[in-house]
Amino acid sequence: WGGDGHALVASIAQTLLNEQSLTFVRNHLPWYTSGNISMLASWPDYIIYPDTNPVDYLNWQWSKQLHFADTKDWACVYDREKDCNWTSTSGQQCVDGSIQNYTTRLANSQLDDIQRQEALKFLVHFIGDAHQPLHAGFHGDRGGNSIRGKFFGKETNLHSLWDTVMIERRITQDFHGQPSLYLQYLLTQMKTHYAQNISDWTNCSTSDESRYLACSELWIVEDAKLNCDLVYRDENNQPMSVSKEFTLGQTYYNTRMIIVEQRLIQGGVRLAAVINKITESTT
Ligand code: DCM
Ligand code: DCM
Ligand code: DCM
Ligand code: ZN
Ligand code: ZN
User: Fold this and answer.
1) Among candidates 102, 103, 83, which has minimal Cα distance to 93?
2) In what order do the strands lie in the sheet with 148-151?
3) Ligand 3 site, residue 68, Cβ cutoff 6 A
């Protein structure tokens, strides 16, 4: 996601943190955030690009691959061993592995405060990215970055469309350009339309996953399915590809924006559940 998406996921989560977690995040973030996890939700993006971090973006390039996982084109599945380099000695080099790493580090009271602060900032961001379906997009098109076309007549690529363009359109058109009004809407949707789904979303369906603090493997599996069913299909249900420019508008926007909203809410609900689990298990 772009800035709005990450801030929305984190702000949704903030409303679901228990007292213990609110104290915990206040103690593991810089004072100027007032314990608000949304304020640094895009920090992992700022540090890696020269336009926002000209001084030492090179030192952070190792973290670039932690924002996503590439999946096999049209396989519609996520294979942790293959797609996340799980067995390599360099460790778990994708968004799934980074979530496992940073939940473990955040829960580890042996680590110093600087390290746990960094773990919290990465975790808030990566749980957001894990819910953007194209952050588990196809390998052959770099998660939709190589698929170009027009959305309401404007040049873009499929990845940016899902990261920022659709969300910005929604906020401009329906919420007076104010993300805070959109946040209120999403919180209402969460408490009404999605109220029945919350306990499902915070459960790990596979028993193997339940030992983890975060069920990131399952979330990426959801992405892989969404990609085949909806994300990579045009308004006539035809597969999109790098060799053909897309032309998308109202029909794609209306049907896919519902998924964007559900993923933002799911990301927020799950981020809060992970932080609450960590503070219950440690303190
Ligand atoms: N971004 C940036 N400079 C670039 C490329 C991207 O500032 N050269 C920003 C735009 C989006 C975000 O990064 O807000 C997307 O990053 P990706 O979803 O990691 O998360
Ligand atoms: N680091 C990380 N995940 C790990 C180990 C280290 O993100 N599993 C990061 C934290 C530090 C940097 O790498 O910023 C160097 O850590 P160390 O001195 O522990 O090697
Ligand atoms: N990205 C992705 N999958 C890839 C490559 C990149 O999801 N295989 C994401 C990371 C950023 C955006 O796409 O959000 C742009 O990446 P970059 O700045 O590397 O072009
Ligand atoms: Zn992205
Ligand atoms: Zn990211």
Assistant:
1) 83
2) 154-157, 148-151, 246-248
3) yes
Q: What are the Cα distances from residue 191, in Å, to 12, 67, 123?
A: 11, 29, 24
Measure 102 CA to ligand 2 centroid, in angstroms: 10
CA atoms of 115 and 260, how far apart (whole Å): 32
Burial class (CB in 10 A: 0-12, 13-18, 19+), 79: middle
Q: Which amino acid, residue 195?
A: A
Q: Are the CB atoms for 126 and 120 separated by under 8 Å? A: no
Q: Residue whose CA is closest, atom 12 of ligand 1? A: 2
Which value, in Å, is the radius of gyration of the alpha carbons in the chain? 18
The response to whether residue 126 sits with its C-beta less than 6 Å from ligand 3 reads no
Low-confidence ranges of the chain (pLDDT < 70): 88-92, 205-212, 282-283
* Residue 52, CA distances (Å) to 42, 47, 60, 145, 160 in order: 11, 7, 12, 20, 18
3-state secondary structure of 169: helix
- Taken in order 227, 230, 232, 237, is the CA torsion positive or negative? positive
Q: Check: CB of residue 82 under 8 Å from CB of residue 96.
A: no
Percentages of the chain per state (helix, strand, coil), in multiples of 5: 60, 5, 35
pLDDT score recorded for residue 165: 98
Beta-ladder partners of 104: none
CA gap 283, 167 in Å, rounded: 36
* Count of other CB atoms within 10 angstroms of residue 243: 8
> What tens digit of pLDDT does each residue of 110-147 get?
999 999 999 999 999 999 999 999 999 999 999 999 99
Cα(71)–Cα(138) distance, rounded to whole angstroms? Answer: 5
Rounded distance from Cα 42 to ligand 5 centre (Å): 7
Terminal C-alpha separation, the chain: 31
